[in-house]
Design brief:
It is a single chain. The protein is α/β, with parallel strands linked by helices. The chain folds into three domains: 3-175, Rossmann fold; 192-331, Rossmann fold, CATH 3.40.50; 335-523, Rossmann fold, CATH 3.40.50. The chain has 19 helices and 19 strands. It has helices at residues 3-17, 32-43, 55-69, 81-84, 87-94, 172-175, 213-223, 242-245, 249-254, 270-278, 315-333, 340-350, 363-371, 392-400, 412-417, 454-459, 466-472, 483-491, 507-520; strands at residues 22-25, 48-51, 73-77, 100-106, 132-136, 155-160, 192-195, 200-204, 227-229, 259-263, 281-285, 300-302, 307-310, 356-359, 379-381, 406-411, 430-436, 476-480, 497-503. The strands form four sheets. Strands 2-1-3-4-6-5 form a six-stranded parallel sheet, sandwiched between helices. A six-stranded parallel sheet has the order 15-14-16-17-19-18, sandwiched between helices. A five-stranded parallel sheet has the order 9-8-10-11-12, with helices on both faces. It starts with a helix and ends with a helix. The mean pLDDT is 94.
């Protein structure tokens, strides 16, 4: 057996024996030993291979897989620029403590800096974005794979493969693989949070810092404070439309809390962060404090949900919050017509129980936060590590591979940015709802609006038809222009991958609509 085959089989064997069930492979020559070893294991039913020709989409697809399966996923690529194309997803994994195992093939170290084809400095190419790195040269991996490090974020193994790269015909190594059943032991918190505030507020970031909805809900029930949730579709007891009515400085002044507990990061609404900033005491619960957010400030910081020693919220405090929520709900119910606010409200209301929902960054996730009514029955996902629009199609498809029925809501630019994610679809049921306002709609709601050159450098109108583009990939697509059509699409069973383009009013009209809604908040 040649050394490259021995190394590849050693790595693949340990991965499978650790209970990992999926791998995402991008084709190439230098990674042939790994690709063929994984393929041999797949023919025995020991692991499932997902093929993606584009390393960037491959890595984001893997992120989606990890989110939906709650297991680490390896990604495999050849040498050279292929490695760099993993970088955006590695950064996202870094900022979400996601268990992404990056396996990059390389030529022997002796060929570096010699002008050898497809050879660059791959060692430590991801810098501090990975929890563990090893530059491996040898016939077998010299120690156990550092899979334990994946509990804290991505791991990078750069594997040097010398020629010959093709294996022998032996399959006896597969007979020796013993697949382990992963065991996850729940930890009981040993830390305590004592807070004596009868007018407190609990703020839950969209990704909850990686904590589960179940454990966050249990903490919220014990705390019994008003809940502001960036993800209203996971917390039915949250205060409805808080990000909307808190845009009023007058309302915020009435609802200044004595203390605020923040779970995860709050990255969607300035109105919510403005309220949190008014609290004399701020407590943060987020496992990332131990990894990427070590300088985050708060009165006290926790990397796990603490035991509570608190007083109950006063009745009049809870009544105040509900009063503003009810008034805002009434105003929002009066929004009619075909616009982005109405679309978000309808998606939140009509998406069927048992569905998964991926929401892209920029306007869609903020609209659902603001206009959807709190409920449960939906499993929500988003890439909130760095909140980029890169890789959203691929992440949604990775998530959908772990669910029977998935909806994905994307803006038009996020859709176009990752259009190559549609090349490989597998047996996946995912319906994409693309909000098409012909450009970067979020910028029309920010301070850049109206400045000279706005349309050219911020608005970036593309003039393209996303439905026609999807059809060119062989994906069933259509364009809708009414709430009735949207209701029908949300109610229809999902079979395979499809795209529904919601063609909406102009970006300027949407910005004016939002401005009008916010201005009404001072009168509630």
């Amino acid at each position: 057996m040649n050394t490259s085959t021995a190394l590849a089989r050693s790595v693949v064997r340990q991965i499978i024996e650790a209970g990992i069930t999926d791998v995402v492979v991008s084709p190439g020559s230098r990674n042939a030993p790994l690709s063929l070893a994984f393929n041999a294991a797949a023919t025995r039913g020991l692991i499932k291979i997902h093929i993606r020709i584009d390393e960037r989409t491959a890595a984001f697809f893997a992120l989606g897989l990890i989110k939906s399966t709650h297991r680490p996923v390896p990604i495999v690529c050849t040498s050279g620029t292929a490695v760099a194309n993993f970088h955006p997803a590695v950064l996202e994994a870094n900022h979400t403590n996601t268990a992404l195992l990056v396996l990059t093939a390389d030529r022997p170290a002796m060929l570096r800096r010699t002008g050898a084809n497809q050879t660059t400095e791959q060692a430590r190419i991801f810098g501090k974005a990975v929890r563990y790195f090893a530059d491996i040269d040898g016939p077998v991996f010299p120690m156990e794979l550092p899979l334990d490090s994946l509990r804290f974020g991505p791991v990078h193994l750069n594997l040097q493969f010398d020629e010959p790269l093709l294996p022998d015909d032996s399959t006896t190594w597969l007979d020796e693989i013993k697949v382990a059943t992963p065991s996850y032991k729940s930890r009981k918190s040993a830390v305590k949070l004592k807070v004596q505030a009868s007018r407190g507020v609990l703020v839950i970031g969209h990704d909850r810092g990686g904590l589960s909805v179940k454990e966050v809900s249990a903490f919220a029930k014990k705390l019994n404070w008003p809940i502001i949730a960036e993800d209203p579709l996971s917390f039915p007891d949250a205060i409805a439309h808080a990000s909307i009515f808190l845009t009023s400085a007058q309302v915020r002044s009435v609802l200044v809390p004595q203390a605020a507990i923040v779970i995860g990061r709050t990255t969607l609404s300035r109105s919510i962060n403005a309220l949190v900033g008014l609290a004399p005491l701020i407590y943060v619960i987020d496992p990332r404090i131990a990894t990427v957010d070590s300088d985050r400030s708060a009165e006290k910081r926790f990397t796990e949900i603490p035991l509570l020693d608190n007083v109950m919220a006063s009745d009049d405090w809870i009544v105040q919050w509900r009063k503003y929520s009810v008034r805002c709900t009434k105003l929002i119910s009066e929004i009619d017509g075909w616009n982005e606010a109405s679309i978000a409200r309808q998606i939140g209301e009509a998406i069927p129980d048992g569905s998964a929902l991926f929401i892209s960054s920029s306007r869609p996730i903020r609209d659902i936060e603001g206009f959807a009514t709190p409920r449960n029955g939906v499993t929500t996902y988003a890439n909130r590590g760095l909140a980029g629009i890169d890789g959203n199609i691929s992440s949604a498809l990775g998530i959908a591979s772990g669910h029977l029925q998935t909806f994905a809501v994307l803006g038009d630019l996020a859709f176009l940015h990752d259009i190559t994610g549609l090349i490989e679809r597998e047996d996946i049921n995912c319906k994409f709802i693309v909000i098409n306002n012909d450009g970067g709609g979020i910028f029309s709601t920010l301070s850049q609006r109206g400045i000279e050159g706005f349309e050219k450098v911020f608005g970036t109108p593309h003039g393209l038809d996303p439905a026609a583009i999807a059809q060119s990939f062989g994906v069933a697509s259509k364009t809708i222009t009414s709430i009735t059509e949207l209701k029908n699409e949300l109610a229809a069973p999902i079979k395979g991958v499809s795209v529904v383009v919601a063609k909406v009013q102009s970006r300027e009209a949407n910005a004016e609509n939002l401005k009008s809604i916010y201005e009404k908040m001072d009168s509630i």
